[in-house]
Fold this protein.
Amino acid sequence: QVQLVQSGAEVRKPGASVKVSCKASGYSFTDYYVHWVRQAPGQGLEWMGWISPNSGVTNQAQRFQGRVTMTRDTSIGTVYMELSSLSSDDTAVYFCARDGEPSGNHYWFDPWGQGTLVTVSS
Amino acid sequence: DIQMTQSPSTLSASVGDRVTITCRASQSISRWLAWYQQKPGKAPKVLIYDASTLESGVPSRFSGSGSGTEFTLTISSLRPDDFATYYCQQYNSYSPYSFGQGTKLEIK
């Protein structure tokens, strides 16, 4: 079945960076864009950006530009999201999510990874 | 950027009730809208996409309607498993995507 499996919880100090992985299975990895969405404790969903696993092209929400890097490794069907210059405001669960349809047009997100809790604390 | 506003923020209802959640976009998004259900500690799950298309496997008591700037999610007869938080999401503009702030559906 189509599945996205994310790496485990992380704890970082302010100013550090974190890299979260998202391994895809059950479908053609390069055919579907993958998005990153985060959710602060008790808050709503915030879209961060997407990556095309085929070309490696990325697009980030303006508020994360310069601080987030999205990459992929097609040999192992995995995408990565690295967030730098962390502050306590970045404490959140980070989700990866696949486009609902292939081809890179604008689509809903389905399925989602299970989420990765990133805690930023001194 | 397109802002999405959901109402109400919290909804108290009983098993068997019919409930409706509204989502308004700050500008027209045609029918590029999805609804998600999220339970505590879990990832969101898509219920409806393209405003009114029911995702495979989702019970038919869920339905969506609307176009342009106003959309609704209706649950025709609440089941105990439906108490969760619901989010709308627009995917009209290629960048950036945006979500509503969420509606928490509570047991009355």
